Amino acid sequence: MSGSREELTYFIKGSSPDPYIVQISLSPFSISCTCVAAGHNVPCKHRTIILQGGDPGIIKGDTSKLTSVNEAAEASGVFGLLNDYDSAKSAEKFASSLSDKAFKKYRDARLRLLQGQLKTDKVVVKAMGELDASIEALVPAIEKTKAAQKALGEVYMPSYMEAAR
User: Is 141 exposed, middle or buried (0-12, 13-18, 19+ CB in 10 A)?
Assistant: First the structure.
């Protein structure tokens, strides 16, 4: 349909008493959802399953169009954006866990020093260096996740209800 914008609306049974509403524009491609995850501007299972051509508990909406949704999603490059986001989020989670471990090591060394269990602060200084290095690795990981989330936000639109607020 050249010149016209095909929009689809699906009502999804979720964990909320009210159904979630997933709205899709096939050209230009965009997709929104009213669930909590979407409200935080992160990928949600409702949108992801529909993008893949699946049915995440659709209670109202034209399910015969799911193949068209999948094809439009593929053509838009959204799957690459989702992969970029997932990779960035995994790297951020890994860097965060290393920072948590480094912080605990520093905290424990500092406590041992304060309690007189260490004769010098060498262990504390080394642990502080490891903590600094882990934070230096975490910051770019967070920035990469934010950038991937922003890129995904060009297609993963906030719900129309959220945009109206």
Answer: buried
The two three-digit tokens of residue 15, written as one number: 């964990």
CA dihedral for 130, 136, 140, 142, sign (positive or negative): positive
Task: Note whether 153 and 47 are within 8 A (CB).
Answer: no
Total H helices, total E strands in the chain: 6, 4
Q: In the predicted model, what is the mean pLDDT of residues 19-36? A: 89
Residue type, 41: N
For the beta carbon of residue 33, count every other beta carbon within 10 angstroms.
29
pTM metric for this prediction = 0.79
What are the tens digits of pLDDT across the range 105-119?
999 999 999 999 999
